[in-house]
Amino acid sequence: MNFQTSVKTCLTEKYATFSGRASRPEYWWFYLAVFIGAVIVTLTGVRMLYVVYVLAVIVPITAAGWRRLQDTGRPGWYILTFLAVAVVSLLVDRTLPDADPFGDGASGLVTEAPTAAQVLLALGLSVLQLIIALLLLWWLTRPSQPETNAYGPPPTK
Fold first, then answer.
1. Do 98 and 67 fall into the same domain?
2. Range of 54's domain?
3. Residues 113 and 133 in one domain
4. Distance between start and end Cα atoms, the chain
5. Cα–Cα distance measured from residue 135 to residue 108, given in angstroms and rounded to the nearest whole number
6. What share of the chain in percent tops pLDDT 90?
7. Are 135 and 146 in the same domain?
8. Considering the chain, what is the average pLDDT of its residues?
């Protein structure tokens, strides 16, 4: 599967398809396209355009990752573990003291120090995110199972 075929497949034919399997080329070519698109949108400097872009590609990139994990014989929902820990980390980050509590840009000083528990929780979640990201990267780069598995027959090239 080449770059154009992968992008066409993931954006039009399998936009929100979480069943079946995705080959390594299908997933990684599409991931590259999404990454290039994100860089281009970021360079425009229009934050709202970036938000719209992310909302447009979050479903197909998640679906492609889901199918890719199933192609290696793993449950596709594992792709959501990183997202779940990221959301928890974001919520914990909201409890940490703000460097600009009044939002006026004047103080720039932290008015209170985070507690040791807050720091340890944030650090633990960061380490967990790193471990999950590396594990997912490892799984997403593994070869396809050549035979039919619980998620269907091998994807066509």
1. no
2. 1-72+142-157
3. yes
4. 6
5. 38
6. 68
7. no
8. 88
